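Q: Convert this sequence to structure tokens.
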Amino acid sequence: MIYTVQPGETLSGISIKFLGSAAPAATLFQINKSRIKSGSPSALATGEQLVIPDQMISASKVTRKASRGSSDVALEVNGIEYVGWEEVKISRSMETAAASFEVSVFDRWEANSEPWPIFDFDEVRVYIGSDLIIDGYVDKVSFSIDATSHGMRVSGRDRTADLVDCSVMARPGTFKNKKLEDLAQILAAPFGVKVVTDQDTGPVISVFTVLPGEKVHETISRAAIAKNFLVTSAFSGRLAITRSGEKRAFDSIAEGVNLLSGESDASSVERFSDYTVEGQCGGQGNNGLKGTYHDAGVPRYRPLMINAEQKATSEYVNGRAQWEARARAAKARSASVTVVGFRQSDGSLWQTNRIVSVTSLSLGLFEDFLVGEVSFSESSSTGQTTTLKLVRPDAYTSEAELKSEKDIVKLDRRARRGRSKGRGVSQAEINAEINSDKQYLSEDY
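A:
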């Protein structure tokens, strides 16, 4: 609609009058910059004609959460909520520090159609139903047009994206006697990001030095790797320091039940038997340190040497070697499965860092996996689906020795045989069976 400014009115007042809140005034100012002669949102001239997009008026009448379905995807931008997206993709991964989203809408072309009032750098919250999935910023807005329609695509990330993109500016660049979470919070604070952890991160880090030009997330991850922790995005735009595989998904995934499609891979190309990390601890003389880790799941000699990315400590070089082994093991055995809908049967959304049981004869999967990445998608052709990228449960677990594929499948089959007989199988029983069968690793199955 076109509104004519009355004597004494401000943009905030107009926003409250038509949209119910002063928050959208910033968006109205962006839209009407060329129409406001003073260049100030608080100094409007009587008689100036302002555009108030119909989409904003319509969205302002929607009561957030009360009118939204449990799986409706909504963007809240500057206090206004936009729903009805025709294409949706929201992704969260254990290996990235910022969840991302991309939504699209396509309208039949009308000569007087107004563009949706969403801009890059806008603060945005992304909801699925009442669940807040992303609290961050719009990165990109793209428009398209053809003979019959016009469209808009909006993408963005959690506020933790600034930690991924931006360099550490803290001076001095050396920190002493800091807990891991305290160090992370110091580095994340300038970006308004809160760091959370559900773990005891152990003793303080005696000395930690930021590398020149290093990005914030790289710095925090480097400190976390030495202590065998993951640094990933959490809901509400927070950064999480955690460990993996301590919770289970509510649902299992089974072929013929809820598995729509999938694929599985096993590759040994990037996996090695012995990892050695070497680095200098500073000072004069021969101060080299070496950390090693042996991956018992690799049956032949395949060594890999890595140079330490920071001033070496015994804790760092050993932790770095373990981390490299686990990360490569995760990529060696993986699967991707797609299920219907965004939610499990208990109403909860599918989440990363959950153990899920997968049964599929076609994919050769009869075991537990760790959910490493979750992608929620919606389109007119597929409806609402969730794709889960799965890795081995022991891939990020420092306390457990990495297992070979035959180990994992063998243990799982023994356990399932025990359950099929109406009894549980304890770890002690499994270990006893393994010890009595010295040749099991060479069996074919």
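The first helix runs from residue 11 to 19.
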